[in-house]
């Protein structure tokens, strides 16, 4: 699973039949310290993430294994908000450290 | 899900057994402001997108979760037309801003 | 779906249990004008494509959605022969234009 | 399947409905000798791996084929701890050789 | 499907519940002439491939479509040993030509 920062929102009123009602976020892939990589994706929000938070993304067909996404043509989900990342016994990211 | 611009159409009369009737578009991957990246894909149109519009792509096996694509060997779908993208409280793309 | 050119054939007599009888092609990924990228893949031919033709590839688990590939460990299929590609109101590829 | 080193842990208390109880590790992709590549992922631990160990990752929808991950939106699993890798008749990695 | 050379073996005694008994090979991705690219993967051997041979890999969830891999968290299989590759009417690889 990849790490990303929530950067904004995407509005799309004309959608294919099974995508109605989804809340799409603009996310930027980031490293384990929260630093953005300049690569942006659109992801369905499952957890109510706010702008600036680091989140975990699930991509590909694994996306369909939640109640809300069954049988929907989604390939990227926000499945968790990251609180903290520890690397080599040091905290390299904590949620207060938003940009 | 990736962002792309509709750039043209693809005609193919000789197809494998389950692909008949699909409407294929030539799309160019783009960033969140609509700027093209020079990478082109072929995608099945689910929403009636026009040339120049920014669209959302679903890729991989997630593609089969719509009525029209069940059991078809498709790996890229156009599932929505993007109206607007907001990033860091500013509108970085709006649909009138076509190239 | 990606575009590719048929470049040759692959012969393999020792195969895993469910792959017998497949006709494998050597294909080179190409851009929308048919220019090769130097990246080669092996794909199962579903449409009887000839050397030099531009074809559409389906990759990943979408491959299993045809009668001949159900339950076979295939991840790349040739699903159509491209006749023509139009981009920005101009024809950038037509099938007679083989290399 | 890709090789990676366990580098740390990821804490996330706000999760989508089916991800509760998973133990997430921060892993760094590595080569066959255990040398890190600087690319970090988050993976669900299935085997009790410790920091520094080299592990095998399964990615994509193959992840759901274990009892603990059925129907969960996971796309990266740690499925084994590597003891030894032999290349060209020489041992290029052995588990004692942790960093 | 990608081409690769068998380079060695991977030993892992601690595995997740459904991976017991698999025979893992260290493989290096290669081009259509058999030249290695320096990228190494771990693949489950379905065909009894020997070191130095060029093989065909199936990746992603297509891997589960064989009797031995049903319901196992595998994402890379060796599904065939390549005998010969012809490109532009010339033989660019033949199995005797091992490194």
Structure description:
- The structure is a homopentamer of 99-residue chains.
- Chain A is an all-beta fold and 99 residues long.
- Chain A has one domain: Beta Barrel (OB fold (Dihydrolipoamide Acetyltransferase, E2P)), CATH 2.40.50.
- The first copy, chain A, is 0% helix and 51% strand.
- Chain A contains no helices and eight strands.
- Chain A has a five-stranded mixed beta barrel.
- In chain A, a hairpin with a 2-residue loop joins β7 (84-87) and β8 (90-94).
- The mean pLDDT of chain A is 83.
- The B-C interface holds B 7-19, 24, 26, 40-43, 51, 60-61, 63-64, 71-76 and C 1-3, 31-32, 46-48, 56, 58-67, 69, 77-89, 92.
- β6 of chain D pairs antiparallel with β2 (14-15) of chain E, so a sheet runs across the interface.
